[in-house]
Amino acid sequence: MIAKLILDKKREGRALGTAEIREFIDGFTRGEIPDYQMSALAMAICCRGMTGRETADMTDAMMRSGRCLEWDFPTADKHSTGGVGDKLSLVVQPLAAACGVRVPSLTGRGLGITGGTADKLETIPGYNASLSLDDFQRVVRDVGVSMTVQTEEITPADRKLYALRDVTGTVASIPLIVSSILSKKLAEGASVLVFDVKCGSGAFMKTREDAQALARALVDGAKSAGRRAAALVTDMSAPLGRAVGNANEVAEALSILRGEVAPERADVALSVELAALMVSLVREAPLDEVRAECLARLADGSALARFEAMAAAQGGDLAAFARFMERPTFKFRIQAMRSGYVSAIDAEKVARVAFALGAGRMAAGDRIDPLAGVTLSVGVGDRVATGAPLATLERSESPDGLESAAADLLKAFTISHDAPELGPLILERMD
Ligand code: URA
Fold first, then answer.
1. CATH code of the domain containing 198
2. Exposed site from 75, 124, 343, 389, fewest CB < 10 Å?
3. Both 125 and 88 in a single domain?
């Protein structure tokens, strides 16, 4: 009966009380409130929205549905709302750890065209991305950084609710997205949270306004839960860096960590900025000072050493990864049909091609091809001659589909006569 009254209230657009939200989520987690009532509430929230206070209560109730970790040292984590070629966590998290901040990072697997950090890490032979919470805590304590998928014990309410939202058309709601993301991040126990909210064709949020609203809600929600937080709204109209896939993204992250990519390149600069933001919020120190320290830790190999130590602590063998990358694959190269400037590379189109090659999964549990993906030879703003390589498509199991995928990939590139005006990757910061 109480569930029905709560549903009536939200359908009429009235704000729910803290106890009502808690009771509903607790009842749903225990299986006493059936899926159809939870789905009805999700739809009512989609249509009627939630106040900041209700969102905070929803987040808190979901966070408390499972185990909440606590640390006795300063911790920080970065969350990205998901982009194309977004391997930044593989650089940012070890870089922050190299500056002395411990980074407990519970991460996800990819679904649809969105990649998942766990899938990328699992291309390192032996890497265990499914640690128990005890092992996760041990690696964070000993190495300073751990990346693993969230276990069953963390926010079970979110796992159940997300599965329902996925099939009831209730994913696209800011209060539901915020409570889903934040409940997991808060349960992880990090005292500082930095959000990279992507905006553009390759992002969940296609417009600047939607990305701003999500960034504001994430920062406000984290702060109301007593954490220090900030967000960067960043452009996701073109892929980040050159690699889009899984193993190729790990290889690119390693080359950034080895100092083989100029720190001025936009994806490296964004990685440094995100790590610097995490560290400066932990220390309450000026960002400029910390940014210089992050650049130094990247240049002197300390961030690479943290990544290597994390991989080793989680069973990963980087020498075997290097051999794995040498395996023969089926490749197809696309070339510029005319000369000019690369003025756009449509992130969503590139992601769809990488997905079609086998880099992503249609349904949870599907197998991915770790070596499948796209590696760009150029970035936006580069000048190309007719016939110059634009990108290589790759898959390991068969050459089938490579040629048609190549035709689709070509459509992602715009080559124009004049040099394009390059916009900034970081659109704004929110505190
Ligand atoms: N990611 C999440 O974890 N939850 C959402 O609702 C959307 C994106």
1. 3.40.1030.10
2. 389
3. yes
- Summarize pLDDT for 72-89 with one digit per residue, the tens: 999 999 999 989 999 999
Going from the Cα of 159 to the center of ligand 1, the distance in angstroms, rounded, reads 10
Token pair 């905006």: residue? 199
pLDDT in tens, 338-390: 999 999 999 999 999 999 999 998 887 889 999 999 999 999 999 999 999 99
Q: What three-state secondary structure class fits 378? A: coil
Respond yes or no: is residue 158 known to be catalytic.
yes
Question: Ligand 1 test: best mutation among 170, 173, 176, 180, most atoms within 8 Å of CB?
Answer: 180
Task: Provide the greatest CA pair distance for the chain.
Answer: 70
Nearest CA to ligand 1 atom 1: 181
Ligand 1 interacting residues, C-beta cut-off 6 A: 162, 171, 176-177, 180-181
Domain housing 25 = 2-49
DSSP state letters, 61-123: HHHTTS-----SS-BEEEEE---TT--THHHHHHHHHHTT-BEEEEE---BTTB--HHHHHTT
Where does residue 410 rank: exposed (0-12), middle (13-18), buried (19+ CB within 10 A)?
A: middle
Which atom in ligand 1 lies closest to the alpha carbon of residue 177?
Answer: 6
Strand partners, 233: 197, 428
**Does one domain contain both 126 and 248?**
yes
Q: Are residues 261 and 123 in the same domain?
A: yes
221 lies in the same domain as 362: no
Q: Does some domain include residue 427?
A: no
Domain count, the chain: 3
Q: Which of 292, 321, 350 is the last residue of a domain?
A: 321
- The per-residue pLDDT for 362 is 83
CA 211 to ligand 1 centroid distance, Å:
14
Centre of ligand 1 from the C-alpha of residue 273, in Å: 23
Cα of 181 vs centre of ligand 1, distance in Å, is 5
